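Collaborator request log, item 7. Partner lab (contact: R.S.) asked for a structural prediction of tRNA pseudouridine synthase B to inform their binding assays.
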Amino acid sequence: MNDPLSTSGLVIVDKPAGMTSHDVVGRLRRIFGTRRVGHAGTLDPMATGVLVVGIERGTRFLAHMVAETKTYRATIRLGMSTSTDDAEGETLTTADASSLIDAAIRDAIAHLTGPIMQRPSSVSAIKVGGTRAHERVRAGEHVELPERPVTVHRFDLLDQRIEGMFYDLDVEVHCSSGTYIRSLARDLGAALGVGGHLIALRRTAVGPFTLDQAHTLEELAENPQLSLTLDQALTAAYPTLPVSEEEGRALALGKWLSPRGLRGTHAAVTPSGRAIALVKESGNRLATVFVARPATL
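Returned to partner:
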């Protein structure tokens, strides 16, 4: 029997530099021949790497795709601060960073590791009064967003080199979702008294989705294919709960089951390997959070 969801799932794209996440969506709409394409976790135009894109019913799953952590490779330039905290902004300050001591750099990095309060960049996509912060900045407004708690699980210094008056650091950051690497660059430079900004950024992982699963747009244009089916996407993002075929049919109708003593959201999977729904216990019932395979399909 043909699977009505055979064309639904996720595409993990290795986004090139110079394109917005929306540009990637537009390209994939043409490649896959459907308007039902959406992305999760915006990447700035200068950034490359993992962009998670939903195709067909996979777009409905994106709202439930919780990626608690992300991993990045980045290059931070010490000795200059910019209006956008990255290389695309106007220069605000410069200072000679070439004489910085290695121990001071490592100490400043250590202070930006763990649970911290972070002020997002003023040119982020965070909405202020219904309008994205970067749009307000482009309109000439001064925007300073409030600090918020984030967690930097790992902030590793991979390489360092002096470029004239600048000190460039290649780093790898494993952090909670919502952490801004540009803000880390800005705050590291500020802590060292020389200013800092981001000159390169590559996202290597979003939750369980990594560059190993990613395709370039050129590869997808030649061979349009899902990185993960909807079944695979649900079970990659959530722990699984085995259910019978009969229970699966009930969940497909949006019905609830008896509680199982579960904590958190699980992907309910039938013996045939179909991920029917995301389920969560509430009170005395196991209820659906998202029905991936509704009975109406």
